[in-house]
Amino acid sequence: MSKKKKEEQVEEVVITAPEPVKEKPAKKDSWEIKDRIYFLTGNKSPISLTIPGKHTRKHALLYFDSEQGKQREIRYATNMSSPFADEQNGEVTLGHITFRDGRLDVPASNIALQKLLSLYHPLKNKLYYEYKPAVIAEDEVEELELEIDALNAARTMDIDQAEAIMRVEVGSKVSSMASKEIKRDLLIFARNNPRLFINLANDENVILRNIAIRAVETGIIHLSQDQRTFHWSSNNRKLMNVPFDENPYSAFAAFLKTDEGVEIYKSIDKKLN
Q: Which of 198, 200, 202, 252 is deepest in the core (most CB within 10 A)?
């Protein structure tokens, strides 16, 4: 496609701004002078997209200044150093705020546009966002450290807890898995979903729920067909009623932490081991 033909396809898309945002801006002396890059959210990359650059009845560009206690009109004027209309004196030259292929580069010399986009525009973090490599790196480091913590915990975890966590992930299939299979899948799970893994590792109910399931699978206790009552399999003595609308194994796990349940837990654990 020729350059001329591509240019003919470029359209100006005007997005109606939402209600004014109440947000306290950064202090003037904290503003870092540097080039800034902005991207459209959702990985959108239209050839051209223009967002509102001045306040109109259709496109409300107002910013609530908490220090002054009032709404202030914002607009992009290429010959002004402030994005606030009440600070723009004399004749103003209004400019367009246009993203090309989903991206807008604003040089350090254009502080007014940078501040309008980074601090005041109501479409910030809704239609577009400022690209901040340091923040992204910080988030990535946090995720990597979380993954390391999860893998270390999985590597040293005993097989009973590993089985309990994997039962949440793969269900009853874990009962037929060898120890090495459980360990392998546990490490993969910890690597792929470290946050959930750590949450499960710190949840004592996961282990108790696994004990309840194993006790039923091995015939130590029995869950009624309607899943409302647990009994000892040996003498059919009732252990507990499952509260309405609760998962039976979660309810039994909670029961095992009660004064009565502690003794039953010891008995089940002894039979299982």
A: 252
